[in-house]
Amino acid sequence: MTDQQAKPVASDGVPQIVIRYVENEHSLVEYIEYGIEEEGVPWRKQPLEDDADQPKNSATELAYQAASDSGLKIGIGVSRDKTLTLHHARLPIDKPVLSVIDPTNSQARTTGTNAARLAKRMPLRVID
Amino acid sequence: MDYIAGIDIGNSSTEVALIRNNNGYEFVATSLFRTTGLKGTVKNVPGVINALEQAAEKADIAVEDIDRILLNEAAPVIGDVAMETITETVITESTMIGHDPSTPGGVGLGTGTIVDITADREAITEEDAVIVVVPAAVDFADAAATINEWAEHAIDIQGAIVQKDDAVLINNRIDQDIPIVDEVTKIEAIPRGQPAAVEVATEGSGQTIDQLSNPYGLATLFDLSSEETQKIIPVSRALVGNKSAVVIKTPAGDVEERTIPAGSLTIIGEHGNSVSINIDQGADNIMTQIDELWPIEDIQGERGSNIGGMLSRAREQMGEVTGQDHSEINIRDIMAVDTLVPQKVEGSVASEHSMETAVGLAAMVKTSELPMQQIADEIENRLETEVNIQGIEANMAILGSLTTPGTDVPFAILDMGGGSTDAAYINGNHEISSIHLAGAGDMVTMLIASELGLDDRELAEGLKKYPVAKVETLFSIRHEDGTVTFLDEAVDSETFGQVVLLKGDGEMEPVGIDESVEKIRRTRRHAKEKVFVTNAKRALRQISPTESTRYHSFVVMVGRSALDFEIPEMISDALAEYGIVCGRGNIRSTTGPRNAVATGLCLSYVGDQAEFDVSVPNGLASAVGLTELTGDKQS
């Protein structure tokens, strides 16, 4: 993995962190992206149309789907109820790495940082 | 049936061996408990009783069923340790050194005058080249936009110093490649308008900076005279191994490495010669003097220094134990080790550290004897059991160690504990000589703590006792030797990516310091080698009749530190060079390097009394102060 590849890469050729989010939470996603970018890990986004009829969109499920889709096995889910979850595809679905309810911009950024540090095998930062 | 217990009260643990007379003696239980109070005081009694209770329980009897208790004449020594830092790096005004954030941005080397990113562009056009400072209040996107705008107006921007963790974000949004160092917490302390240099090493290749860590590189960048170059050496040395760094030149500012007056030692030999030596002359010089004046009568430390304080503390402790005035108590050995200690730099802007030189010292106090009779009386009162003081510690250790399969006289033992390294030698005529040297497990702990900059003594103790590993993925750890173990369950997020202590039973404890597995392993092994290998050689030399380490053929290692996972092999390795057979003891073929003295006590008592089926060499009884042993009767 080269750390030089800091900008989001469009092609699916390289392993990437996947962010799966309901569309009206894109402002949080921006801060998640800053966190990942500063650590120099590639990522891609999967926006979902917000559908109130779909009860399945819990952050944990979104994160798990994202992780399963990710070449790095690392995914972040952002749900309609403003919950942020970081997941790894090898973990049981009900045991995500971490979850933050109604995060601040800075907490969202740290979640992105931690997703990247998970990929880089570095100690995670405390989300405060 | 008779039950007899041998008890060894050590500095840190109290050990029991329990034997039973059932038409011939046999060992029935062994136990171990933490020593309560200072060794040789009546405060040891609760620990003794606890250890006895454990042993009794294992043998399925009550403590009251024990008919006789044997105590050893404990070696009257106390060890203590101290550290003297002898250099100090002081920065006047802010010259920044040694900052190494985890994600710097860009690459290369830049030099220029420091300007604030919020400065008026019109005002800076006359500068040749600039380095911009980005405080936390400025958003990274705005900072990047400003840099691009300035560049369009032909301002030569050479690098950036950023307060928040934004270096990569800025680098990705600007049109040129400049080195960017971030996470500089005290950015307000950086003097605007001064010349500075910023360097970021090429990423990924594992490379480190090469210009700012080279004193001549700094001299080239800042146009320094030879005198100034000499002064900048602490800066360049502190930057070696960094992936990024900033150095700022200030007109009145200065980086100075100065020597702290560290006090002196006066070593007095038994032959009346004495020498005074300053601690800042280093460990090698101190140890040479000790060797030259050996045997040592006393060592005095300068008042007001750390070493002076440590020596008088040890004297006072021993005085308390023996009831002697502390002026009558002598320091009989000292061990000094050179070390490097990370210290927070005075006047730093990003919590930088510099490696200061220091000398670690261990001292050993010896008095004529410990008041063992008081302990014996107290145990007798509490348990209403007869208590004998059976023999001298070193002799009992020799006797106990002889139950290790494959041993025979003449041979030597190395008893490596927490406070002192002891050795004893028994020659072909069964004469025993013994010695106690300063420096053992506690000194190793101190060296590990100070070299890794730990305040937590318990953590340092853990780092001494257990190997470390790195949690590499949620499901695997990589060990010191590079092998990987997969885990049954995912680690929690706090442990991920951390260096952890492996505490035997599969438990992983995060170390919580920002050091690599390699650095921790190297520090730990160095500390052990500096203390134990040095002391093993020193001790064996001094107990040999010819004052030569090479004199010995067989050495058995016993004591707490002989249980360590790497100390015995280090010593075996080092002694193999002298052609010495050296290994860890296995007392009674069962207890490993533990329980030598307690076993020896039982053996010597039984040897006095009756038949005993433990193979102890012929004629040994007289050597340990007994009339005869089983083996003697047969010869």
Characterise the protein shown here:
The complex is a heterodimer of chains A (128) and B (635). Chain A has helices spanning 26-39, 59-69, 105-120, and strands at residues 17-22, 43-48, 74-78, 83-88, 98-101. Chain A has 128 residues and is an alpha/beta fold. Mean pLDDT of chain A is 86; it is low at 1-10. Helix content of chain B is 29%, strand content 30%. In chain B, the strands form seven sheets. Chain B has a six-stranded mixed sheet with strand order 10-9-8-7-11-12. Chain B has a five-stranded mixed sheet with strand order 3-2-1-4-19, sandwiched between helices. Chain B has a five-stranded mixed sheet with strand order 22-21-20-28-29, with helices on both faces. Chain B is elongated and about 105 Å long. Residues 609-615 and 617-635 of chain B have low confidence and may be disordered.
List low-pLDDT spans of chain A: 1-10
How many distinct helices of chain A?
A: 3
Describe the largest sheet of chain A.
5 strands, mixed
Indicate the low-confidence ranges of chain B by residue numbers: 609-615, 617-635
User: Based on helices, strands and strand pairing, what is the structural class of chain B?
Assistant: alpha+beta
Give the overall form of chain A: globular
Q: In whole angstroms, how far apart are the ends of chain B?
A: 29 Å
Organism (chain B): Halalkalicoccus tibetensis
Pfam families (chain B): DDR (PF08841), DDR_swiveling (PF18427)
Protein name (chain B): Diol dehydratase reactivase subunit alpha
InterPro entries (chain A): B12-dep_deHydtase_bsu, Dehydtase/Dehydtase_re
